[in-house]
Design goal:
Strand order of the largest sheet: 4-5-2-1-6-10-9
Order of helices and strands: HHEHEHEHEEHHEHEEHHEEH
Strand content: 15-25%
Largest sheet: 7 strands, mixed
Number of domains: 1
Distance between the termini: 33 Å
Number of helices: 11
Helix content: 25-40%
Structural class: alpha/beta
Shape: globular
Number of strands: 10
Length: 277
């Protein structure tokens, strides 16, 4: 099954599940109010994951929702979104396909693809864990991602965001929490991480057309199958670390990355990880 077909099947499954749920339609003003309730504010640097379908939007588009977030964080703020392949990292690596930063569509939803084409947005070059970035110092956050063997390490957009004041994660109708991997890689014991053995050589075509080989670690699906998602792990924490607003078909989550990192570090020291019992 092709990556595009897999994405389409996943989208159809989500729509079918939503049809069985009852939820009010949401307006753009509702969305802005929810952002305010979650505490998004001027100057925030926020990593956004999303399912626009789960917002149950009426009368506003993905671009309008993105612009609402841009207006809220302002020119001193920053918005980052994932730009991953349409299949799992390991499946992509095994396929041997070249991740083309200019032409390969993100498998992380319509909002990410719309965001990637908006004025002022830049991409980090990486074959499995690229991001799109808009806002203050966006190019510095995105730079040289492909040089890091650790896709979430200190010298990546994730590590740089984690080290930044007012760093937050905003999940719109999903429980994905990519920043948790950066926290894991920084504070968890290496032997308890979820990477496959070895370093993988993965082809990448940068936006200027240059083709390179990226040397990177890749999460092992067999290990991941026995772990909970980072967003699920974070549910053990409450305010001020994690705020929740019911919205559309699901929830919106706002997480303070700095506070989460400190709380998770303590959990890791006690032997509490994402690994399921």
């Amino acid at each position: 099954m092709s990556p595009s077909l897999i994405s389409e099947v996943k989208r159809d499954i989500r729509r079918a599940k939503n049809m069985l749920k009852k939820a009010d339609k949401t307006s753009l003003s509702d969305f802005k109010e929810a952002l305010s309730r979650l505490g998004l504010q001027q100057g925030d640097k926020v990593f956004v994951t999303s399912s626009f379908g789960n917002l149950n939007a009426e009368g506003y588009s993905p671009e309008e929702a993105i612009r609402a977030m841009m207006e809220t964080v302002g020119q001193e703020g920053l918005i980052m979104m994932p730009y991953y392949p349409p299949v799992s990292s390991m499946d992509w690596v095994k396929s041997g396909a070249v991740f083309d930063m200019k032409n390969t569509a993100s498998g992380m939803g319509v909002m990410t693809n719309v965001f990637s084409r908006m004025e002022g947005v830049v991409k980090s070059a990486h074959p499995t864990k690229a991001v799109c970035v808009w806002g203050k110092d966006a190019e510095q956050y995105a730079s040289l991602h492909y040089e890091s063997v650790e896709p979430y390490g200190d010298n990546t957009p994730y590590g740089r965001l984690l080290a930044t004041r007012q760093s937050k994660s905003l999940s719109l109708g999903v429980v994905n929490l990519p920043m948790f991997h950066a926290i894991e890689d920084k504070y968890q014991q290496k032997e308890t991480l979820y990477y496959a053995e070895g370093i993988f050589d993965v082809p990448l075509r940068k936006e200027d057309g240059e083709e390179i080989i990226c040397h990177t670690k890749v999460h092992d699906p067999a290990k991941s199958a026995h772990t909970m998602m980072g967003g699920e792990f974070s549910k053990r924490f409450s305010e001020p670390i994690r705020k929740v607003v019911r919205f559309g078909y699901d929830n919106l989550y706002m997480i303070d990355n700095t506070l989460l990192a400190e709380a998770a570090r303590k959990e890791f020291a006690l032997g509490h990880t994402r690994k399921k019992d």
